[in-house]
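Key result, reporting period 2: structure in, sequence out.
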């Protein structure tokens, strides 16, 4: 079974670069500006995990923590019916898949804490196959002072919990984070530079991606270290790009992608 496996995204180049897809047991972060497609990506992944194994899915329960109430079951059904019509139009299958995706909508930090606690119950039953948190940065309103002890960060417990959850349960965890659009100048420090994540990327002049400093301010360095894979979604000259910005196995590749009725595709 999928012990040390991957959840294939069915985005061919990405799956190849990540040796099969989103890996189990680590945190994968989707970062990008508003409207770029982070939630669209999450909806697709939720569907993929809920698919029967005979169709390449994980045949399991998904928890989708929808912090900003942006989850759309109508859109999910659209993506499902257009991407996997052969499964979706099988008697009762759409309903069964939808029933596997549990959407939690915490509206405050204490409620988010409760959401994470609920996960433990499902984990003990060994049914949970994917956890999505859309989005994490939305949970912290004010800017966190960098000089503070990371342990005093309002999400310190959550960050540790999420990381250890991935490691202990061996499920894939997807977290989104919004950054402001990429129109700021060089005065903002680059994320790679800050945490030394990927020196190859820094030296590429055609790759000017900067990690928005407000995200660092909001989530702190503790978070940056908790993330194993970072995918940056961005738009340049009207074209959407998905970039592997941090990965233990892949070089900093990038792919063009688009969003259609059937969801995100390369
Ligand atoms: P935010 O940070 O605000 O949550 P996001 O990165 O999650 O933004 P999404 O909601 O995933 O952004 O993407 C929204 C975009 O997806 C829309 O702007 C639109 O371009 C595209 N989109 C949504 N539904 C469809 C559809 N049915 N057909 C084509 N494109 C669509
Ligand atoms: Mg979104």
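The corresponding designed sequence is given below.
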């Amino acid at each position: 079974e999928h012990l040390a496996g991957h959840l294939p995204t069915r985005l061919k180049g990405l799956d190849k670069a990540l040796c099969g897809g989103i890996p189990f047991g680590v945190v994968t972060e989707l970062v990008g500006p508003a409207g770029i497609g982070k939630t669209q990506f999450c909806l697709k992944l939720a569907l993929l995990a809920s698919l029967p194994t005979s169709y390449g899915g994980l045949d399991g329960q998904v928890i989708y923590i929808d912090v900003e109430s942006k989850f759309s079951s109508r859109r999910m059904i659209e993506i499902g019916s257009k991407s996997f019509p052969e499964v979706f139009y099988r008697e009762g299958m759409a309903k069964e898949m939808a029933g596997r995706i549990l959407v939690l909508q915490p509206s405050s930090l204490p409620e988010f804490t409760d959401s994470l606690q609920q996960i433990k119950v499902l984990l003990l039953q060994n049914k949970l196959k994917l956890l999505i948190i859309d989005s994490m940065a939305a949970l912290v309103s004010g800017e966190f002072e960098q000089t503070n002890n990371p342990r005093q960060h309002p999400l310190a417990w959550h960050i540790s919990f999420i990381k250890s959850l991935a490691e202990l349960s061996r499920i894939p965890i997807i977290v989104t984070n919004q950054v402001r659009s990429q129109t700021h100048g060089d005065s903002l420090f680059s994320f790679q530079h800050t945490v030394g994540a990927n020196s190859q990327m820094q030296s590429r002049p055609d790759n000017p991606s900067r990690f928005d400093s407000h995200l660092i301010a909001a989530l702190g360095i503790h978070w940056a270290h908790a993330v194993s894979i970072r995918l940056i979604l961005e738009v340049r000259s009207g074209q959407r790009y998905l970039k592997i910005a941090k990965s233990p196995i892949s070089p900093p590749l990038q792919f063009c992608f688009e969003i259609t009725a059937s969801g995100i595709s390369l």
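The chain has ten helices and eleven strands. The chain has a mean pLDDT of 85. This case is discussed further under Risks and Mitigation.
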